[in-house]
Amino acid sequence: MLGLYEAAHLRVHGEDILDEALAFTTTHLKSMVEQLDYPLSLQVNTALYRSIRKDLSSKSPFVRDRVVETYLWIVSACFEPQYSYGKIIQTKLLALITVIDDIYDAYVTHEELELFKEAIERFEQKRGHVASAIECHMKQYGVSEEQAYNEFHYQIENAWMDINQECLKPIAILMLLLNRVFNISRVLDAAYKEGDGCR
């Protein structure tokens, strides 16, 4: 019901069904919020005060609405219900990174861009240019871009076999870690199977 309430805020003029959905969900969420357990009660109260969509778009209309996408990335790695709090925190962190990126793109002057870029580079790397893995491989082994890509595809296939092999002989603690690696690897494989647009 909370999802329908949030979705109804995306309505435009003339969408009577969504107007009715908003009225229906608002009434019912208000009547049931006191009976809900935490953290759902907090989510409902927050949404009733100001929906996620309204809050983000009214304060920062230039910010991309990527909450669902960021949540998908997180839930792909940790879908089990016992990790719900971690999923919420990680989704908020990714959403915050998206907001910072959009502010960076929309409002920062060239001088501020340079200062921000330098600060970020000092925080990841302590060096100027951050080369891609492909560029590093090309330079280190003196190979072409195509050869580097082929080598990376070969390594990816080997990594999949390693993951599969480890999953065949499960150890309780190791499987908790392997499941995270396996799940995020599947999503990355699906997202970047045909390349990341850099090639």
List keywords for this structure.
single chain, 199 residues, mainly alpha
Q: Can you characterise this structure?
A:
The chain is mostly helical. It has ten helices and no strands. It has helices at residues 2-8, 16-32, 40-49, 52-59, 67-77, 84-107, 110-124, 133-141, 145-168, 172-192. Helix 5 (67-77) packs across helix 10 (172-192) and helix 8 crosses helix 9 (145-168). The model has no long low-confidence stretch (mean pLDDT 77).
Number of strands: 0
Which residue ranges are poorly predicted, with pLDDT under 50 across at least 5 consecutive positions? none
* Number of separate helices: 10
Distance between the termini: 43 Å
Query: Largest beta sheet, briefly?
Result: none
Q: Specify the overall morphology.
A: extended
Strand-and-helix sequence, N→C? HHHHHHHHHH
**What's the average pLDDT?**
77
Topology:
Layout: H1 2-8, H2 16-32, H3 40-49, H4 52-59, H5 67-77, H6 84-107, H7 110-124, H8 133-141, H9 145-168, H10 172-192
Helix pairs in contact: 1-2, 5-6, 5-10, 8-9
Give a concise summary.
By secondary structure, the protein is mainly α. The protein is built from ten helices and no strands.
